[in-house]
């Protein structure tokens, strides 16, 4: 009952501009996940970055189940199963980034280009639905929540990963 599992994984590509590059990034996410991505908008205008408020600047896709585990394994393989402590949040989730999507096994296409992407993984235990359901909503107990140390231990046992204490230099 206390075993930890991946609730969902979010893949995000932030291009910083709308237009053709964003559409190509969305195509990369669609090839990777088999789902159509959603677009994120800029919160406010930043003239130095030449983006306007509500302009589409990023795309993301949420993957669950077995597909999430396959993509997570491929992403961690690129990072050589090494994360730093700062990658893990206090609520037991973790995230990391890769600089080139072609490292995941997608063939390089010169018309598409190369995009970096962020992986963000949400961990949970069975029974977390009680906090999200509509009828008879209740809190998840403190003993049942996933902590930072639980997430690190899960990562080390599941993927034989290494958690470093220093900053990432790569």
In short:
With 170 residues, this protein is an alpha+beta fold. Helices cover 24% and strands 24% of the residues.
Structure description:
The chain has 170 residues and is an alpha+beta fold. Helix content is 24%, strand content 24%. The protein contains three helices and seven strands. It has helices at 20-33, 65-78, 148-159, and strands spanning 5-14, 38-41, 56-63, 82-84, 94-98, 117-124, 162-164. Strands 2-3-1-6-5 form a five-stranded antiparallel β-sheet, with helices on one face. The protein is globular, with a radius of gyration of 18 Å. The chain starts with a strand and ends in a 6-residue tail after the last strand.
Task: Give short descriptive properties of this protein.
170 residues; alpha+beta; 5-stranded antiparallel sheet; two-stranded parallel ribbon; 3 helices; 7 strands; globular
- Total beta-strand segments: 7
Helix content: 10-25%
Backbone CA Rg:
18 Å
Mean pLDDT: 90
Q: In DSSP terms, counting alpha (H) and pi (I) runs of 4 or more, how many helices?
A: 3
What's the main sheet like? 5 strands, antiparallel
Q: Which structural class should the secondary elements be placed in?
A: alpha+beta
Biggest sheet: strands side by side, in what order? 2-3-1-6-5
Quaternary status = single chain
End-to-end CA span? 38 Å
Which stretches are low in confidence, meaning pLDDT under 50 for 5 or more residues running? none
Mass-distribution shape: globular
- The ordered string of helix (H) and strand (E) elements is EHEEHEEEHE
Strand content: 15-25%
């Amino acid at each position: 009952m206390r075993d930890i599992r991946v609730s969902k994984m979010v893949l995000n590509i932030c291009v910083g501009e709308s237009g053709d590059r964003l559409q190509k990034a969305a195509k990369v996410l669609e090839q990777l996940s088999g789902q159509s991505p959603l677009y994120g908008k800029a919160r406010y205008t930043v003239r130095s970055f030449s983006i306007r408020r509500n302009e589409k600047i990023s795309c993301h896709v949420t993957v669950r189940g077995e597909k999430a585990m396959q993509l997570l394994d491929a992403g961690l393989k690129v990072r050589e199963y090494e994360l730093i402590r700062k990658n893990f949040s206090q609520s037991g989730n973790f995230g990391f980034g890769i600089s080139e999507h072609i490292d995941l096994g997608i063939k390089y296409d010169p018309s598409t280009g190369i995009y970096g992407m962020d992986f963000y993984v949400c961990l949970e235990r069975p029974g977390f639905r009680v906090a999200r359901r509509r009828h008879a909503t209740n809190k998840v107990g403190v003993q049942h929540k996933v902590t930072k140390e639980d997430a690190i231990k899960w990562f080390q046992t599941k993927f034989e990963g290494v958690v470093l204490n220093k900053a990432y230099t790569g």
